[in-house]
Write a structure and sequence with these properties.
Number of domains: 1
Number of strands: 0
Number of helices: 8
Structural class: mainly alpha
Oligomer: single chain
Order of helices and strands: HHHHHHHH
Shape: globular
Strand content: under 5%
Helix content: 55-70%
Largest sheet: none
Low-confidence stretches: 1-10
Length: 222
């Protein structure tokens, strides 16, 4: 990915479409949940997400970065609340020992696990090193809440690898969130900031709840 260079004031900003796709995917996963895991009408949550997403996209296109950041937090806050409520309802649903609900519980657990990965990917992407806009305006990514392997490479190694102006993008944070939900650890990316450690603990707890408790129970009653 091309970044701003010292010799040239031009830079290619990180594309925002992966984050937009992730937001729409979370809304779609919520829409596909069983009715007893949804609060209110099935269409209400996705409609509200899309309604908030419109000014987010418009503010980014018009380079209103303060408004874009605020709307981004509003969208992600809504996604997080929706996910936590659905996980709580799924735990509550476990008290109903109905063998016919086994496949439904398994599918719901898988959907909420994927939602957990995407929601926390968006948080890491939005918060690390001031967010995507702040990262776009730096010469090089040398300081952040996560210590990516590229940040520890010597300049000559980065130059040889074509990564001299490397900076993390959405897919780097997706890999981080995926590892946190599967291995319950950041694997190759050490965590430096306290806020990031707290978020990763929350993500691991949700993933552990969904995988080790909910999905296991669903498999047992198939």
């Amino acid at each position: 990915m091309a970044r701003r260079s010292a010799a040239n004031d031009y830079y290619d900003p990180e594309p925002r479409w992966p984050a937009m796709i992730a937001i729409v995917a979370v809304a779609g996963l919520y829409y596909g949940l069983p009715a007893h895991l949804i609060v209110g009408p099935r269409w209400a949550f996705p409609a509200l997400v899309l309604l908030l997403l419109i000014p987010t996209v418009v503010s980014h296109a018009r380079e209103l970065h303060g408004l874009n950041r605020t709307m981004g937090f509003a969208v992600q806050g809504l996604l997080t609340i929706g996910m936590i409520v659905s996980v709580a309802l799924l735990i509550k649903d476990l008290v109903v020992n109905d063998e016919k609900r086994g496949p439904e519980l398994l599918l719901s657990a898988a959907s909420l696990w994927a939602t957990n990965v995407l929601v926390f990917t968006l948080w890491y992407w939005r918060l690390d090193a001031g967010g995507p806009h702040a990262r776009d305006n730096r010469l090089e990514h040398t300081d952040g809440s996560f210590l990516f392997p590229q940040m520890t490479m010597p300049p000559e190694a980065k130059r040889a690898a074509g990564e001299i102006n490397w900076a993390p993008n959405f897919f780097d944070y997706l890999f981080l969130a995926f590892n946190t939900s599967t291995a319950f650890s950041p694997t190759d990316v050490p965590v430096l900031a306290r806020w990031a450690k707290i978020l990763m603990m929350v993500q691991s707890v949700i993933s552990l709840t969904v995988l080790a408790l909910l999905a296991a129970r669903a498999v047992n009653i198939l």
